[in-house]
Amino acid sequence: MINDKVNDLRERLHKLIEEKADYREILKVSQKLDKYINQVIKSTSS
């Protein structure tokens, strides 16, 4: 489930960058992606 969320956020981030979206939108998605990546790291290191 978390991997799906990470992949979804990566795709959204890439689309925003391709569309030259507003910096705040890109930052928001990037921060969400970081959050989920950290969750994956914590869950796999346990």
From TrEMBL:
Single GO molecular function: protein dimerization activity
Source domain of life: Bacteria
Gene3D superfamilies documented for this protein: Helix-loop-helix DNA-binding domain
InterPro entries membership: HLH_DNA-bd_sf (IPR036638), Spo0E-like (IPR018540), Spo0E-like_sf (IPR037208)
Any GO BP annotation: regulation of sporulation
Pfam families tied to this protein: SpoOE-like
Protein known as: Spo0E like sporulation regulatory protein
